[in-house]
Write a structure and sequence with these properties.
Elements: E1 4-7, E2 20-25, H1 29-46, E3 49-54, H2 58-67, E4 74-77, H3 80-88, H4 101-107, H5 110-115, E5 127-133, E6 136-139, H6 141-147, H7 155-167, E7 173-174, H8 185-199, H9 201-208, H10 217-230, H11 240-246, E8 265-268, H12 273-279, E9 290-293, E10 304-314, H13 319-328, H14 331-340, H15 358-369, E11 372-375, H16 377-380, H17 383-398, H18 403-417
Parallel strand pairs: 2-3, 2-4, 7-8, 10-11
Antiparallel strand pairs: 1-3, 4-10, 5-10, 6-8, 6-9
């Protein structure tokens, strides 16, 4: 468990006496720098400083802090389930009288407000500052053109393309599963995206709610379909199983840009562009990297996309924390990270022109036009289930032949995780 602390310096508009806000989130590196850039105008205008703490193992750290009576003032979590648990326990504050509900209702879709009211009592416990679109296949257009590869427009043509790439002597896919305590989650994205596109929203919802067994034909088929992507003995992935397990998700796309490329496609959410740029400062969006949405598997569920977001909750209702969470719901605050790249705003007041390139603008438009949008299933599962899911991904990537025992174990955990 690694913690990174930082403080935003006071600007000309305020003084230290204005107080501070203790904030916990998962952002490190380039993402942390972008968050600090978002908060600089806030500090400049109010004098309120931000004491920031980051941890990839947020479930454990935040749970420990709350249990010991020492929570942060505000926390941003990629897993709304964790914050929902605290809401049901009365550990976080309702935000209805903190944020401008009229403005919020007019500026974000009802989906995001509904997600922020998880207890069903009409109280808003979470607000979303930035969101991401999953299931985007990144590639280098120059490399595709040099090889004569066409962007696939169907699942069958995607499988044909990966076979063509492999036949040319290069592995088709870049995949990295390492993420500290959260290792495995990038592979879990593959499975959930396949479940939604292959079996539809009803199965998807029943699954994350614990009402559909992991060993059911639909969920097993999704894992087997991901196995088609990985190939026998992971032969379709650069470096194979060992490399997947050892490569951090932030670095997994780098082989796309090597000469010659070590792989040609990389499945990751819209946020990955900031990592492309930080690792390869000379690459240009649209020229050196582009994307196509993961093709539909079942035409009955055309236009289905998995989405995720950064949910905020308030643990300590201080004047400083109230001002900060109000600020984070505004288009002005959200646009700062949008302009830096790697994030999409759920606020419809953020102009499309604020997106730094045609790719991010296109991503935002896809999100707005998504016909079947479902929140990240893993993030909605209880913590024990989610952690087991991520661990199962690592086991499957290491040995696909273990699938039946992997799913049986997940069934066993599922039977307990939803009752605790």
């Amino acid at each position: 468990m690694a913690a990174v602390f930082a403080a935003v310096a006071c600007g000309g508009g305020g003084t230290q006496s204005a107080g501070s806000v203790k904030v916990m989130a998962t952002w490190t590196g380039a993402e942390q720098a972008s968050f600090m850039a978002v908060m600089k105008p806030f500090t400049d205008q109010t004098g309120i400083t931000i004491a920031y703490e980051a941890s990839r193992d947020q479930d454990a750290l935040l749970t420990t802090r709350v249990a010991s009576g020492n929570p942060p003032d505000l926390a941003a979590a990629p897993s709304p389930t964790l914050l929902t648990k605290f809401a049901t326990q009365g550990k976080v504050k309702a935000l209805n009288n903190v944020v401008d509900m009229t403005a919020l209702s007019s500026e974000v879709s009802k989906t995001w407000i509904d997600l922020g009211e998880p207890t069903g009592d009409g109280k808003l416990y979470q607000v979303y500052s930035w969101v991401s679109l999953k299931g985007l296949i990144w590639y280098d257009p120059k490399n595709f053109q040099a090889k004569g590869y066409n962007v696939p427009n169907s699942w069958d043509s995607l499988l044909q393309l990966q076979q063509t790439i492999k036949g040319g002597g290069t592995t088709p896919w870049c995949i990295g599963l390492e993420s500290g305590a959260a290792s495995g989650w990038p592979g879990s994205d593959w499975v959930k995206e396949i479940v939604l596109s292959q079996s539809g929203p009803s199965v998807y919802d029943a699954w994350w709610k614990g009402k559909q067994k992991w060993s059911s034909p639909e969920i097993k088929l999704a894992w087997q379909t991901w196995g088609q992507i990985l190939g026998a003995n992971d032969a379709n992935v650069y470096g194979g199983a060992k490399s997947m397990a050892a490569t951090n998700f932030a670095d997994a796309g780098t082989p796309l840009f090597q000469t010659p490329p070590k792989c040609y496609m990389h499945n990751q959410a819209s946020f990955i562009t900031s990592f492309f740029q930080s690792a390869n400062p000379s690459v240009v969006a649209g020229t050196d990297y582009n994307f196509f949405p993961l093709p539909d598997i079942n035409s009955q569920f055309t236009g289905a996309h998995v989405v995720a977001g950064d949910a905020w909750s308030m643990f300590n209702d201080t004047p400083q924390a109230e001002k900060m969470i109000k600020y984070l719901t505004t288009a002005d605050a959200q646009a700062i990270w949008v302009k830096r790249g790697g994030k999409i705003s759920p606020n419809n007041k953020v102009p499309l022109d604020d997106y730094p390139d045609a790719l991010s603008k296109s991503t935002a438009q896809i999100l707005v036009k998504t016909q079947i949008g479902k929140y990240d299933a893993g993030d909605l599962m209880p913590a024990d289930m989610k952690n087991a899911y991520w661990g199962a991904v690592l086991k499957f990537a290491a040995n696909q032949g273990q699938l039946d025992s992997i799913l049986a174990n997940l069934d066993s955990i599922q039977a307990k995780a939803y009752t605790s």
